[in-house]
User: Fold this.
Amino acid sequence: MASSKKATVSVSQATAKSLPVIDLSGFGEGDAARDAAVAHAMRDACEDKGFFYVVGHGVEPDLVALLRQQAEAFFSKPLEQKEAVSKDLSACNRGYERLAAQTLEKGGSPDQKEGYYIGVEVPETDPRVLAGKFNHGPNQWPVNMPAFRQTADEYFETMVAFGTKLMQAMALSLDLRHDYFSGYTADPMCTLRLLHYPPQRPNAEPDEKGCGAHTDFGGLTLLWQDEVGGLEVLDEDGWVPAPPIEGAFNVNLGDMIQRWTNGRYRSTLHRVINRSGRERYSIPFFYTGNPDHEVRCIETCLAPGETPAHPPITVSEHLQAMYKQTYA
Ligand SMILES: O=C(O)CCC(=O)C(=O)O
Ligand SMILES: [Fe+2]
Assistant:
C-alpha cells in the first residue's frame, strides 16, 4: 500500500508513544519471517493498550468511501423515515438507533450520536431465529436505497476476511498455531455499525460526549473514521487522541479478548468528543466470532502457578451479559 509509509510517520508525530501502526501486508502468504514480524508487533500492541492502527489490510478505499456516502445519505433523511427502520422494531438489534439512545459511559450523559446496526442476514424461517437465538435474524433496510444494502453487504464480507486474518495474527502472537481460533472465526456473528456525530453543542452539559468512555464488549473492533477526528484513548497520562490516518483502520480489543487472555491482552477505555464544529462519520465493525464458541482462558496466557480469573463462557453468553449492562 502506497500510503502506509506516510501514515506511519504521521501517527508517530500525532500520538507520540501511544499507538503503533501495524502493516498487515504479506501476512499469511507463506513468508514465515513476515508472519512472525506481524505477530510480534501485534503482541506488543495488545499487551500495551490493545489499540493500534492497521495498514496493508487490503480493504479498497473506494468501498469505504461508498459506504460513508450511503451512511450520510441515510442519516440526512427526515427522522420519520429513519424511525421506519428503527432498531426498536427489530428482535435482533438491527436498524436505526436515534440520537442519544445509548449511554456508553456509566452514569454519564446520553451519547450525541445516531447509528445504524447491520448484522449477518439470517431469515425469519431459520431454526436459530425460530429458537430465539440472541441477535439472530434479518436486517432492516431503508426503502429506496438499494446501494445502501449492496455496499453494506460487500463491506461486511470484506471486513469478515480482514478480521479473520487479524485473529490468525493474534494466534501467532500468543505462540499458538495460526488456526487456533478457527472455531471462533467459523460463521462469525459480526456487527457493522454506521455512526453519525453532530458537532458538540456549545451549550452542552460539561460531561456531554459523542460517545461516552467505554470499553468494547467483544472481540476485535475494526474502526474506520473520517477525517474529522475526536476519538480518544485512555493512557497512563490521561486521554490521548487517536486521530484518523488516511488508509488505516483503528483496531482495538474488546473485553472478551481480555477475558480470554486472562488480562494479558488489553481492552482499553476510549471515547469520542466531536469538537471540530463539523459532522463526523465513523464505521466500527465488531468482529465478535462464532456465538457458540467457548471462551476459555488460553494456556499461553497463564504464568506458572497462575489460575484463570474467569470460568469458561460462550461468546453469546458473554455478549448478552454485556448488552444487558449498557442498555439496562
Ligand atoms: O466512532 C468512533 O470513533 C468510535 C466508536 C466506538 O468506540 C464504538 O462504537 O464502540
Ligand atoms: Fe468503542
